[in-house]
Amino acid sequence: MLVAQTSKLTTFVNPFIGTQNAGHTFPGATVPFGSVQLSPDTDTIPMLVNGQYQKDVYRYCAGYQYEDSTIVGFSHTHFSGTGHSDLGDILLMPTNGPIQWNPGTESHPEKGYRSTFHHEKERASPGYYSVFLEEPMVDVKLTTSERVGIHQYQFKQPKDNQVLLDLCHGIYNYSDKNVWCFVRLENDTLITGYRQTNGWARTRTVYFAISFSKPIQQYGFKNTKATAYNGFWRKFDVENNFPEAAGEGIKGVFSFGEEVELMIKVSLSSVSIDGALLNLTTECPHWDFDQYAKSAEAKWNESLNMIQAEFLTSEEKTTFYTSLYHSLLGPTLYMDVDGQYKGLDQRIHKANGFTNYTTFSLWDTYRAQHPFLNLMLPAMNADMIQSMLAHYDQSAHHMLPVWSHYANENWCMIGYHSVSVIADAMVKKNTGFDYQRAFEASVTTSNQRFYEGLGAYQDYQFVPEDLSGNSVSKTLEYSYDDWCISQMAKQLKSDSLFSVYQKRSEYYQHQFDSSIGFMRPRFSNGNFKKDFDVLSTHGQGFIEGNAWNYSLYVPQNPKNLISMMGGDKRFIAHLDSLFTMELPDRYFAETEDIMRDGIIGNYVHGNEPSHHVPYLYNFTSEPWKTQACTRMILPKQYKAKPDGLGGNDDCGQMSAWYLFTSLGFYPIAPGSPDYAITSPSVKHAILHFTDGKQLEIKVNKQSAKNMYLQSIHLNGVPVDKAFLTHSEITNGGVIEITMGPKPNKGLFQP
Amino acid sequence: MLVAQTSKLTTFVNPFIGTQNAGHTFPGATVPFGSVQLSPDTDTIPMLVNGQYQKDVYRYCAGYQYEDSTIVGFSHTHFSGTGHSDLGDILLMPTNGPIQWNPGTESHPEKGYRSTFHHEKERASPGYYSVFLEEPMVDVKLTTSERVGIHQYQFKQPKDNQVLLDLCHGIYNYSDKNVWCFVRLENDTLITGYRQTNGWARTRTVYFAISFSKPIQQYGFKNTKATAYNGFWRKFDVENNFPEAAGEGIKGVFSFGEEVELMIKVSLSSVSIDGALLNLTTECPHWDFDQYAKSAEAKWNESLNMIQAEFLTSEEKTTFYTSLYHSLLGPTLYMDVDGQYKGLDQRIHKANGFTNYTTFSLWDTYRAQHPFLNLMLPAMNADMIQSMLAHYDQSAHHMLPVWSHYANENWCMIGYHSVSVIADAMVKKNTGFDYQRAFEASVTTSNQRFYEGLGAYQDYQFVPEDLSGNSVSKTLEYSYDDWCISQMAKQLKSDSLFSVYQKRSEYYQHQFDSSIGFMRPRFSNGNFKKDFDVLSTHGQGFIEGNAWNYSLYVPQNPKNLISMMGGDKRFIAHLDSLFTMELPDRYFAETEDIMRDGIIGNYVHGNEPSHHVPYLYNFTSEPWKTQACTRMILPKQYKAKPDGLGGNDDCGQMSAWYLFTSLGFYPIAPGSPDYAITSPSVKHAILHFTDGKQLEIKVNKQSAKNMYLQSIHLNGVPVDKAFLTHSEITNGGVIEITMGPKPNKGLFQP
């Protein structure tokens, strides 16, 4: 029995990975699954200068771009890796000199409160971020607890030192999402209030409490947006030491004169100001910054040690642990310390018997992120399912979440992949939620008619393109989701519903045009679309993928897919071509959310629909090609540098793919207990499961060239199929693998 | 001992009194001090047509003008008698035919959802309102419980019958106060949501639950205001049977097809949707409209029977009971059935041990409305004081309310007259609140410096006009308020603070210019303002009054005022002139909030600062002039018809003046236990106090001509001063008065 020794794995995490270009990660401080992500924003909303938007706002989904030279300030909520933007709440910025109410621009930082900075004086590690702001001359250190952001400012000059609070600041595609702000000076060290926005979350309020370590000497609030008449604005000097302000565009400035040391604690709540105060006093009672930072680091070390892995290179190790770090950023905790949270119905609920989470990017995360959590943190994954069921209970549409965050359904992307997360947990015997209730919610969700061609899908057994766009992607994903529901029905011995959903899980067949060997859009009259471009992503019935990629989306039944596509050899040829063909630039230009190097041949790793594709060789006579393929993808798509991610990390999905793949197995069809085996890139790893069991992965003769599995033994018994079951992995023990430079073509052959 | 028999006094209430021109009352349904005032709005916000505002929005403070020919719909919250506007929440309107989302205009009602109506088919009585809407052909009946509005619609045609919900509708000076709306279809008979506004209440949210007696057959929500991008609005048919909507400008329509009978219950809460649902199920569990209407009427009859009064004419009786009705409309109940309410700090509070109220128009109501409640409903008045103290506890400014409504301080008018209400209750031995806590809140309030020249007042012993406008009014009212605090200090035996506030109560003397015999603005250099017009209301250092009226504002010490103004004879001459002089029209034009007939000579009864003035004769050698004067004012200023009020009813203050005066006594200086005696207009009255005691007022030889008191006996003992104390009144018994056509000049003489 190996004894787990906790090592300081935080040193192998580089939070800057993915912060350049399309990764859309943030470098700031947070704890695992923390509510607060306290991070520098280098730009956020689009700024219109001379009729031109100065920044491509899409790049600022996480608020930060590594190439930028200025920091606007530090805000408390950030998505990790999304392709759509929101959040960026409650910005603070230390300043001095004359008050500047606006951030200014990167090219003219002196015209606003932002500051230049250099990466040499910037540092990030799990739970910690620091930077030197050059204009105000301030050393900034940040850390967090679950619900509180903690700032430490060291001003280098004892003069006119201030902190600016910008409640207008936010991250979003459109420049103005503020609906309302309210702020009060409770006493000379405490500010409370809320910010209400209409962003990607349609209706959202963040309540806050801001506690300062030193007394505010002077202060002012300003409403920077026109508002309906309020007589009293004429009566009083409301911008100087007037202790309350409300309006659409509130900002504030707090002066600390010659004070040079200042700590600030910013607590958030979705419930109320009282909730924020309760979170503040419960989580952060003292003023010892280093202790908070140590506590955050300790939480990360404990989490990261769930997998102790060694690699050939330190770059690989950093990539692995940064992937693990990114996989543990979400879904995020979404409730006050007393369990209260604002629900989808905009009412206050209490999470009874579970921890409530938000930010479910399910079209992405059902693939590998939730299976990873289900494997390594099953109780937490069950709580996430309970959070989805609470969403269902609160849904006026009677649907499980599609893409939900902060008590809002934003309906992004397609499918109803909550059912995949549920089915996966059920077949893997995760007992942390009510199966019958989850099954009923899944069935009801799948029978809605208003949603994205789902009514037509039930009527036509496919989604007609004339009735609902991106129709093929929808049919394929609905079929997979229905297969997931069939697996629940099987578990629950509901024969009649098993039949219904088994049948629905085969509807993908109705999209296949055998005359060309591709999935192809059809119309409600049954005809296939005539003009059809199998390489194009736009207008061809697909979303974030073309027919070459998406035609392979039958994770629930690859064998039938292979048969439909002409059998083993023709299918292998399709896969081989996918990875090697030249995709003309004009097609790349259509591909969303990724950089040029997010594509390998015509295989788009930077988007999700093909994440299972490299593993499809395992269903053919040439399973060693999966091994070559994933060993090729790993270093190409994941690099230990700021621009190391070829596409959005998508709330941990890209990272979870890395984790599974580098460990040598992948859940290509969540809802099945099977993992497809590939060539691991680890030299050695121990997985510590939460029930105390552990799995050791010993890899002999690991090297960059030795990319092929020669043999694989589980607890001494040779593995003769290209798959491992969930229980084989979680029962623990030792997987011993020997690698070689050439395929062992006899391995996994019947 | 007289036995109280409850008579049907509701028949003597005409809710239309004051609905024409400046009374600003509403005719709709409500219960005593009810949270919900469900009333027709004939117009509300200004409509810009061809560059001209089509309606004078000031006329629509209560949403209704008697001369109008159309009704826009029925909204659930209304001020009674204010001179500034707000509320008008959650408008419903029965319609049929093609959906019209906008109200249209009075001149073109067919262009909107509004309808014409005629007064012949309109009826209003306490707790009940009905009208026939001509275009949709609907008989509408309305009643309420405390927190729920109840609608009954009888459609005359069984076709396309609908109910329109307009969450944009509201009452306000500016056309657009909506901040945000959220609405959900919970099931086919229940809608929930909230409306958030930035009106006179700066930041306010009304949560609602709307329950229908019949299932909604089809429905739609529409966002009529541009909003930040929300992708899903493109994905779904969000305007047809889509069960959730959020945005700045939400409206909804609910179709009931051929149903002709429909009941709707609309519950409100300041706390949450759950609060609204709790109020709904607690107060209105059944669907029997008549029972709700009977219950509302019964509450009114019980309340109105607190005073059983007989008059010479039925018009006088109607005027009296309508005044009593208007006096019992506010302050209004402001908490859910479980005691929760949103406080000034925008947090949820629970009223522990008291009932919480809102809408404190204190500059008006401290004069007679609160003294009236303190006399007749002392426990309720104590709860109102507790509500003020809760406001104080929640105030970032550490001030008692000035003019507060719905968890907002709107800072309207001047003074800190909460202290008057508190002092009056204390000197009259109202034990329903904590004296020490109330005293401390009063002292702290009076020592703020930011407020309306109050810092300068403390420094200069008057408010210099160059530092704060309307300076004389402020000095005079602060002096009176400080006298009130001195009376609290006396009660609490705080000698040092008694001295402080006694001294401050004399600061009014610093505004008196003995060279002209008027109060006069001074500058911070001590000089009086040179160009000074004693008749003008604007720019002369006064607000809602000129020097002729306001110079008499020393209610705390009329004797010293008389002495300052040159003694008994010169003072009497000043008063005589006030009531008889001709005020040129140009001066009237400057006078706010009243109609031409709100002025008698130069005495402005339609505004409040002179309400005590007719009683000042009691401090002179000619007290019988008070009697002639009030008997002259009563019929001139109060008539039993829609335009019967000469000025805003001001949340019951004008009505409370009527009640006291017609009963023959008036609290000219709240904070003193004394009431000034005048000639009653009642023939006979019994006041039923809440402790079971009662006071009978027997008036012999009462007639229009017999306006002078000949004799007055309290329980058989002659009254020899022109004043009665609070205990003399509340100890009960019989006041026997004999009237005559000429003054008994010996009465009340020393």
Keywords:
homodimer; 750 residues; alpha+beta; Beta-galactosidase, Chain A, domain 5; 9-stranded antiparallel β-sheet; 39 strands
How would you describe this protein?
The structure is a homodimer of 750-residue chains. Chain A has 750 residues and is of the alpha+beta class. Helices cover 26% and strands 23% of the residues of chain A. The first copy, chain A, has a 9-stranded antiparallel beta sheet. In chain A, a hairpin with a 4-residue loop joins strand 9 (128-133) and strand 10 (138-144). In chain A, helix 8 (418-427) runs parallel beside helix 11 and helix 11 (471-491) runs antiparallel to helix 12 (495-504). The first copy, chain A, is globular, with a radius of gyration of 26 Å. Chains A and B meet through strand 13, strand 14 and strand 17 of A and strand 13, strand 14 and strand 17 of B.
Secondary structure elements and their pairing?
The structure is a homodimer of 750-residue chains.
Chain A: E1 39-41, E2 48-49, E3 52-53, E4 70-71, E5 73-75, E6 91-96, E7 115-116, E8 122-125, E9 128-133, E10 138-144, E11 148-155, E12 161-166, E13 178-187, E14 190-197, E15 204-212, E16 218-223, H1 232-235, E17 244-247, E18 250-257, E19 261-269, H2 273-283, H3 289-304, E20 307-311, H4 314-327, E21 332-333, E22 340-342, E23 348-350, E24 357-358, E25 360-361, H5 362-365, H6 369-376, H7 378-394, E26 403-405, E27 408-409, H8 418-427, H9 435-446, H10 454-460, H11 471-491, H12 495-504, E28 512-513, E29 518-519, H13 547-550, H14 558-564, H15 568-580, H16 585-588, E30 599-600, E31 603-604, H17 624-637, H18 653-663, E32 665-666, E33 674-677, E34 682-688, E35 694-700, E36 708-714, E37 717-718, E38 723-725, H19 726-730, E39 733-740
